[in-house]
Write a structure and sequence with these properties.
The protein is mainly alpha-helical. It is 63% helix and 0% strand. The termini are far apart. The model has no long low-confidence stretch (mean pLDDT 95).
Length: 221
């Protein structure tokens, strides 16, 4: 086993200890609602999405209802989310596309999901993993940052990070590990105000070079 693989195994054990049964952070009742919630979560916190989706889903509980809802009404529901005008446009188009191309059902296919309005690879991966249980390792900016901090990936880009994490963690762990890393980052490993010595993973996994660079960035702010 390589040193990087040993590090990943030790990290996995810590994640299992801290977050043995990670729940899905976005409230939803079915795959359609999860898809909408994940689309809304870009540039917005999960907590904010969970505040706006109950009223949105009350007005638009199905793809057909969402497609029929005026864009202005959708925007009114989600106006406190980042990029709200674009998201409102994409949500209405998403409802129409699901009705037109998929009989009102959320497709269980990466390519079909990524072809939907406003849906990228990360969103498709979240839906496949959390709605359908298909192994995936969605990488957002937070997971990308932590993978670099922990020496699991070069941090070059999210595509590279996803490839590296998939190679280091067993496939049957991908879905849980994705959520565990998100929760760990929120509680122990924030982007700002991060105390390296107090972090259960960074304290030993972060290289001296990475730690020094992070301290310099913090000092310059």
């Amino acid at each position: 086993m390589s040193r990087k693989a040993e590090r990943a195994a030790r990290i996995a054990a810590i994640l299992d200890e801290r977050f043995p049964q990670p729940g899905i952070p976005l409230d939803h009742g079915d795959p359609f609602q999860l898809l909408c919630a994940v689309l809304l979560s870009a540039q917005t916190t999960d907590a904010r999405v969970n505040l706006v989706t109950p009223a949105l889903f009350a007005d638009a509980p199905t793809p057909a209802a969402l497609a029929a809802l005026p864009e202005a009404t959708i925007l009114r529901h989600i106006r406190t989310c980042g990029l709200a005008p674009t998201k409102a446009k994409n949500l209405r188009a998403l409802g129409a596309a699901l009705m037109r191309d998929h009989g009102g059902a959320v497709p269980r296919d990466f390519d079909a999901l990524e072809a939907l309005p406003g849906v990228g690879h990360k969103t498709a991966s979240v839906v496949m993993a959390q709605a359908f249980g298909v192994p995936a390792f969605p990488v957002d900016t937070h997971i990308h940052r932590l993978a670099a901090r922990w020496g699991l990936s070069s941090g070059k880009d999210v595509v590279t990070t996803e490839r590296d994490l998939k190679a280091l963690f067993p496939e049957d762990r991908w879905n849980a590990a994705h959520l565990q890393i998100i929760y760990f980052g929120r509680q122990y490993c924030p982007a700002r105000g991060h105390v390296i010595a107090a972090c259960p993973i960074c304290a030993w996994a972060m290289s001296k070079t990475t730690a020094a660079a992070e301290r310099r960035r913090g000092a310059s702010k």
